[in-house]
Automatic annotation (TrEMBL):
Annotated catalysed reactions: (6R)-NADHX = (6S)-NADHX; (6R)-NADPHX = (6S)-NADPHX; (6S)-NADPHX + ADP = AMP + phosphate + NADPH + H(+); (6S)-NADHX + ADP = AMP + phosphate + NADH + H(+)
Protein's recorded name: ADP-dependent (S)-NAD(P)H-hydrate dehydratase
Note accompanying the cofactor annotation: Binds 1 potassium ion per subunit.
Subunit structure: Homotetramer.
Organism, scientific name: Nocardioides seonyuensis
UniProtKB keywords: ATP-binding, Isomerase, Lyase, Metal-binding, Multifunctional enzyme, NAD, NADP, Nucleotide-binding, Potassium
Function (record text): Bifunctional enzyme that catalyzes the epimerization of the S- and R-forms of NAD(P)HX and the dehydration of the S-form of NAD(P)HX at the expense of ADP, which is converted to AMP. This allows the repair of both epimers of NAD(P)HX, a damaged form of NAD(P)H that is a result of enzymatic or heat-dependent hydration. Catalyzes the dehydration of the S-form of NAD(P)HX at the expense of ADP, which is converted to AMP. Together with NAD(P)HX epimerase, which catalyzes the epimerization of the S- and R-forms, the enzyme allows the repair of both epimers of NAD(P)HX, a damaged form of NAD(P)H that is a result of enzymatic or heat-dependent hydration.
Domain YjeF N-terminal: 1-188
Top-level taxonomy: Bacteria, Bacillati, Actinomycetota, Actinomycetes, Propionibacteriales
Domain YjeF C-terminal stretches: 193-441
Length: 446
């Protein structure tokens, strides 16, 4: 920022915002835009973008929600022919889009009554949030009180925590980031991108054999839930590790062999997947796997039996399971997922993967990766078993627990989206699409 004169960053931000609004409107001339303007630089961005839109023939009105407004932005908007008013009743009743420039990264959670009233008056009109939907807690993704729910959020420089972490992330709508040329510090929350995934994905060395690529073991399923064994094995058996072993009752093991003839029985492994469909056997499965001293993926029924610390391992709870482990209500975990996933990673000294609409993966040192892939269609029986198997295969292939869990979550989400194509999918089709997804990804290498 030191290299840029005052206002250069805001100029870039406003230009990116105006371009995104024109794109959304499909043009400028004759369109109507309403700006909701707060007292800080977020309002300044809105006013300046409004002046750029007004010069493209857009009819721009600004509702000033505070006694103060960004002076240069105000002057620019007025010079370009935009109107400023202080009362909702003085506004045109049917704008084509509402721009939320109430507060940005300097705001406190919640909205003041005048902002709530204005938003209610224009309910149903598409909303573009400037930087973040006003009212959410930018640094935690939590919400406390009323907030804007946007159709599009245009952010500047980098994504903020609220863009990646629920519940705030779900209020952002589509996300568009404008590069304004900031030098950024290392983030505390990051989201893997396809190039990161290609870099991290374990690939066989020239002279690899199945043992050097890693062997993953699965202890899952029971007479009540044999399918969980089949699906956890399907997730482990996507070719990312060299071999898969299954250990369980003969009745389940024979069904696993029938479905997956490559899978073998007990022997040495580099990682265990424990718990899916384990029922009453889950505690014994966890003890047996722990005795080997290799990294574990602890899922489903085995999660209730975790005690002490598990360095190098991955826990894969959903919100209800994490609540159970931490002695909280599910709603508490859903309201503050970032805080609780970090807390659990610290408490158990291991990686915790909290499954949800935006899966979060936390390391004991506090670093978090948010998963930006996936589709709501992934909320289907057995999808979690596939994920546990997939993460186990990445652990066995030698990835550190944080990379294995975050890469697994990314691949799982992307494979789900690929298999779904906007429609329903089953866990079996999800598992089948994982190798195809990785082939597409690796084909784009270079
Ligand atoms: N940093 C950068 O590099 C760049 C930053 N840029 C932009 O600047 C934005 C940050 O601007 P900022 O720091 O001026 O704070 P901002 O969010 O506009 O408002 C803070 C003021 O609002 C008030 N207020 C607080 N809570 C409230 C509430 N709930 N409801 C209502 N009002 C509330 C409170 O003032 P009060 O009314 O209490 O006097 C407070 O002082 C950033 O998000 C981005 O858009 C870009 O131009 C590009 C470069
Ligand atoms: K905003």
């Amino acid at each position: 920022m030191a290299r840029l004169h005052d206002g250069a960053l805001m100029e870039r931000a406003a230009a990116g915002l105006a371009a995104a609004v024109l794109d959304l409107l499909g043009g400028g001339y004759g369109r109507r835009v309403l700006l909701l303007v707060g007292s800080g630089d977020n309002g300044g961005d809105g006013l300046l973008a409004g002046s750029m839109l007004a010069r493209r023939g857009v009819r721009v009105e600004a509702l000033l929600l505070s006694d103060h407004a960004h002076a240069a932005g105000l002057a620019a908007l007025r010079a370009a022919g935009g109107l400023t008013v202080r009362e909702v009743r003085d506004l045109h009743p049917r704008p084509d889009v509402v721009i939320d420039a109430i507060v940005g990264i300097g705001g406190r959670p919640g909205l003041r009554p005048a902002a709530v009233e204005a938003l209610e008056s224009f309910a149903g009109v598409p909303v573009v949030a400037v930087d973040v939907p006003s009212g959410v807690d930018v640094d935690t993704g939590e919400v406390d009180g009323p907030h804007v729910t946007a159709d599009l959020t245009v952010t500047f420089g980098t994504h903020k925590v609220a863009h990646l972490v629920d519940p705030a992330a779900s209020a952002c709508g589509a996300l568009h980031a404008v590069d304004i040329g900031l030098d950024l510090p290392e983030p505390a929350v990051e989201a893997l991108q396809p190039a990161d995934v290609r870099r991290l994905l374990p690939q066989p060395a020239l002279h690899a054999h199945k043992y050097t690529r890693g062997v993953v073991g699965v202890r899952a399923g029971s007479s009540t839930y044999p399918g969980a064994a089949l699906l956890a094995v399907a997730g482990a058996n996507t070719g990312l590790a060299g071999m898969v072993r299954y250990v369980g009752s003969e009745a389940v093991a024979s069904r696993v062999r029938e479905a997956h003839p490559e899978v073998v029985g007990e022997g040495r492994v580099q990682a265990w997947v424990v718990g899916p469909g384990g029922g009453n056997d889950a505690a014994a499965m966890l003890d047996a796997a722990r005795a080997d001293g290799v990294p574990l993926v602890v899922d489903a029924d085995a999660l209730a039996h975790v005690d002490g610390t598990l360095p190098g391992c991955v826990l894969t709870p959903h919100a209800g399971e994490l609540a159970g482990i931490l002695g909280l209500a599910r709603e508490e975990v859903e309201a503050r997922p970032l805080a609780h996933v970090r807390g659990a990673a610290d408490r158990f000294d291991c990686v915790v993967l909290l499954k949800g609409h935006r899966t979060l993966v936390a390391a004991p040192d506090g670093l978090v990766r948010a998963t930006s892939t996936g589709t709501p269609w992934l909320a289907t029986a057995g999808a979690g078993d596939v994920l546990a198997g997939l993460v186990g295969s990445l652990l066995a292939a030698g990835l550190p627990a944080f990379d294995a869990a975050s890469l697994g979550a990314w691949v799982h989400g992307a494979a789900g989206t690929r298999a779904s194509r906007g429609g329903p999918l089953t866990a079996t089709t999800l598992a089948g699409s994982i190798p195809l997804l990785m082939r597409d990804l690796l084909a784009r290498q270079g």
